[in-house]
Input
Amino acid sequence: MARLLITGGAGFIGSHTCLVLLNAGHDLIVLDNYSNSSPKALERVIELASLSLEKATLRLEVVQGDVRDEGILERLFLEGSQAGRPIEAVIHFAGLKAVAESFLKPTSYWSVNVCGSQALLSKMEAYGCKTIVFSSSATLYGAAKSSPIPETAPIRPVNPYGATKAAVEMMLADLAGCSGNDAPFQTSQNGWRIARLRYFNPVGAHPSGRIGEDPSGHPNNLFPILSQLAIKRRSSFKVFGSDWPTPDGTGVRDYIHVMDVAEGHTAALDALLTSGPQLITLNLGSGKGYSVLEVLKAFEKASGVTVNYELVDRRQGDVAITVADPQFAYRRLGWKPKLKLSDMCRDVWTWQSANPLGFHNEAA
Ligand code: WQD
Output
């Protein structure tokens, strides 16, 4: 098993992936600045992994800090190599990830997502750590012409968030010596082993309800908005656009359970650790699209709560349909999502109803 650096490991996808990685036997160092996460998530991960305090100290080291901080990065890599427990691979989640917000704060998104990735990759290179799984996004496809979307579809981001993910993907291709080539599998000329995972819409929570999505401040995404509405933390739900070219006029997305996304990371990491230098690019999606109104109905069924909504104008940066062609991930990793929309709605409701204030819910 490997010793891994997990940037952003206290976040929504990061925390669920840390749990799967610990259960797979890996030892982790988590670097997180808690700008959109809580250290409590990692306490719960330790609980779910049934780690004793002694084991947790050994197997899950937690460092608060910013991925752009070269001093912290230097300390983590240096201490690892001096202690004879070098960082063997990195899973890089740390970043800002809300489409709507990225229009309001483009320079913050470029600083955290791109400069942060550059600082991390430079330090990895300096210490000869050349294995990385990168948290990319289907948002970089923009308004794709084809649906479902294969990994070879043109990269045409229509918002700053997607543009930053495309920029980091290009940086990774340059490192691998694969510049300008969009093939989903390429051997690396420079010894790097890189997986670029393009998430579609990760949602849901661990079935225990002990960890889940807990966005700081006003949530931007559909599922946390629905779940907060159901526990009366919000009073209204706006459907952004009812005139899209879709069956019921509302936006269609490829929702994938966060536990399936976490398993996808472990499968990609295992593929890199057990084979030679390469650059692989994978869609993490189900291949099935659901409209906003279909999600709303499924959530009402899971929660027993009626969701009143208002049809309003489209949201800036949105596209009509984003659905994955997930075949390559299955062929390359033998991985495909197992959980359905009803599981996603059930698990997000279990999480939110048990933790009305997320990880700030002292009573829980
Ligand atoms: C989903 C659908 C909205 C809120 C997300 C993340 C991004 C990336 C891709 C990982 C759309 C509609 C939403 C609301 C609504 N993930 N909606 N009312 O925009 O597809 O992007 O997944 O990289 O990080 O932002 O997800 O959940 O915001 O929207 O009608 O109040 O729900 O228009 O059709 P999106 P979302």
User: Anything to note?
Assistant: The pocket of WQD is lined by residues 97-99, 137, 139, 199, 201, 220-222, 225, 238-240, 251, 253, 292, 315, 318 (CB under 6 Å). The longest strand covers residues 131-137.
